[in-house]
Amino acid sequence: MILNQKELYEIMLREEDPINRYQYMEEFERFDKFLSGLKPSWNKNAFWFSGLWLLNRKMYRYFFIWLSIIGLSSLVSSILDRTCSYSCRDISLNLLGSTWLILAILLGVFGSSIYHQHIKQKIEQAIKQFPDEEQILACLHEEATFLSRSIVK
Predict the structure, then answer these.
(1) Radius of gyration of the chain (CA)
(2) CA 102 to CA 88: how far, in whole Å?
(3) Which of 55, 31, 14 is nearest to 120 (CA)?
(4) Which string of DSSP letters, residue by residue, matches 125-139?
(5) Are the C-beta atoms of 80 and 92 separated by less than 8 Å?
(6) How far is CA 91 from the centre of its chain?
(7) What distance in Å separates the CA atoms of residue 93 and residue 110, rounded to the nearest whole number?
């Protein structure tokens, strides 16, 4: 394979604005120096826009996990709200708010690492699926992980 990992990342991040692309490239290079697993960093967009950020990065599996946790928390909160006394209602509100905040913090801290793993997985799938470099590049161009510009096109 003629292309190196950095060039493959650049292909996957081509739709990003230059500031985000530069930030992700720096983080991905740093992440590649360590063993696999989640690595902490700070991603303010993942923190503030949690579920929307996951959707925008085409990380649908993680979005549905996030949505399921929020939905389950909302369901438990609703049950507590209906069945408990007046003092229990504060607990139900705190449960939903705390769940939302914990997920936002986790995505803020580990979002870039999750995104890195997602992109690496897409690259590895393309390399395994296609023997020819041109086919790999075409596949990666289609799989580019930034959704909002592809909606506009």
Answers:
(1) 19
(2) 21
(3) 31
(4) HHHHH-SSHHHHHHH
(5) yes
(6) 29
(7) 26
pLDDT in tens, the chain (153 residues): 567 888 899 888 877 778 888 999 999 999 999 877 899 999 999 999 999 999 999 999 999 999 999 999 999 888 887 887 766 767 777 888 999 999 999 999 999 999 999 999 999 999 999 888 888 888 888 877 665 444 433
Q: In the numeric block, which tokens belong to residue 95? A: 């449960």
The pTM score is: 0.87
Length of the chain: 153
What CA–CA distances, in Å, run from 90 to 71, 80, 87? Answer: 18, 10, 6
Query: Alpha helices, DSSP H only, in 33-85?
Result: 44-56, 60-83
Token pair of 79 as six digits:
């049950």
